Amino acid sequence: MLVSQNTDGFFSLQQNVNKWDDAKTIETKAGVTSPMLPELELDMTEEELISLSKKWVKMWKPFASTMKGKQDNNEKYWLGKSYQTTTQLTDDKPMVNNIVFENVETLLSMVVGKNPDAVVESDNTPEGNALAEKVQAILKYLSDELSIQLQLQVMARYWMMYYLGVAKIGWSNKSNDIDLVMLRPQKLILDPAATIVNGKYLGEFIGEFRRDTASNLQKRFPKKKQYIDDLVKGEMGTDVTYVEWWTDDYVFWTTDDNGMIECLSKAKNPHWNYEGAPVTDPQTGQQTPGDPYNHFKSKQKPFVFLSVYNLGLTPFDDTSLIAQIAGLQDLTSKRLRQVDKNADATNGGAVVSGDHFTKEQAGKVSDALRYGGTVFVPTGDINAAYRRDQAVSLPPFVYQSLQDYRQIAKETFGTAGSTAAAQAKNQTVRGKMLAAQADMEKAGGGITQRIEQAADNIYNWFVQMMAVYYDEPHSASIVGKDRAKQMSQLRAKDINRQMLVTVKPGSLIPRDSMSKKNEAVELAGAGLLDPITLFERLEFGDPV
Fold first, then answer.
1. If you count DSSP H runs as helices and E runs as strands, how many of each does the chain have, helices first?
2. What are the Cα distances from residue 90, in Å, to 35, 47, 81, 201, 433?
3. Could you read off the pLDDT of 498-537 as tens digits, one per residue?
4. What pTM value is reported for the model?
5. Contact in structure between 440 and 247 (CB atoms under 8 Å)
6. E runs forming strands in 330-369
7. Which helix (H) or strand (E) holds 53?
8. Measured distance CA(266)–CA(263) in Å, rounded
9. I want to staple 192 with a disulfide (CB 3.0 to 4.6 A). Which of 63, 82, 161, 464 is the partner?
10. Residue 467, Cβ neighbours under 10 Å: how many?
11. Residue 543's pLDDT band (cuts 50, 70, 90)
12. Integer CA distances (angstroms), 294 to 1, 275, 364, in order
């Protein structure tokens, strides 16, 4: 295990070749299809690393520029700032029925309603089962401590808004434990020709923009103390942005001083056990390095990705749910303004004849009519003196089209039966359950499974981090069966055999207490549930 002075700073979390929009042509073209790049090796000089990072950035910038417009547009729709006229651009409270926000947040509550349940299996020996039980307990503890449910919701929201969800796993010296953070994709530099498969990034490199004070950077990169001092002109409280570059095998750091790139440091991938405890030959007494335990079969970058609508051409999704209903949002906003304008016009006004009233009197006529007063016409036909003007009612199809736009948006997201309005229409509990179940079948067919895969990858990363960093015993207190507290303790050297770590299917999906109780009553009525279990599910104080 690589040890630095402060691993919090390193690894914790707080021309044509550049035109990658032609990815479909590149995938069927033989020969060189990327810039000429050397392979990253740890013995590279700082100058060579700087040169390599410049080429990576040059590859990424055109693609990132294209993505930024799409990401900003989705963000605008989520905030409800779409379809505004020039006079409304400065309005902090635009008049809009934000179906994008409604469906995004409804879907999030549907697909990530609980912490995912980790399932750990080993070799089915007594020792292996005991180890699997300990690891599973620690994973449950970490899921609570790190609020995995809320973090996965952030990841899914970023995915819907920015075409990619990204999680980074690290180690924190402050908590002396594993750490997790969800990153905005805008903070990353990726290989534009890379793809995401089962939540794993298949590109060579990842760069992450990070920021810290100059004083902390001097502690983390002591060999660059003078450089950092010169960079901030002695003002140690100044924030400095730098880039952390990852490959599977190595990591290095660079910063930029007005176009002059400086390499701050380089290291092997720290999240890997490179040597095990020495093994002594009983006959010769000779010691050889032991076979170290790693949960992964090979070194990896400490990132997990969420991608759903990807055609395998770039690391970002090719479309998003927000982009799919953006047009419906515009039509909804347009129809809403039509209805509102027509509603304002229903009060009507007055058309006043100049033969009977002056301009000053005309205003008084309008006011008198508005408040139910009397208008005196001394001579002539009163029908020729003034006339009440009434707006023409909107045809029924206008309001019906508004309802249709909203409904299509909900069906696209799979939330048609789960929004507050839809639930209110269902008068029976069973009707609400069936509507919600139909929604979950739509959403669960793709989105839920991908989020479960992301959680699966995160939990496997946690086990790898345990094997590398749990030099001291780590304890966890969890609520076990019969709601009794259970204590588990684990050290890195205890992890000495392969384990299968997965997420229980469907464990992310929330189930409300009313649904559980109704299900229990139905099962008991069919003779499929014993009385004690029935009363337990009905939450009686003492079922026995």
1. 17, 18
2. 44, 48, 10, 40, 43
3. 899 999 888 887 665 666 677 778 888 888 788 888 887 7
4. 0.78
5. no
6. 349-352
7. helix 46-79
8. 8
9. 63
10. 24
11. confident
12. 11, 10, 87
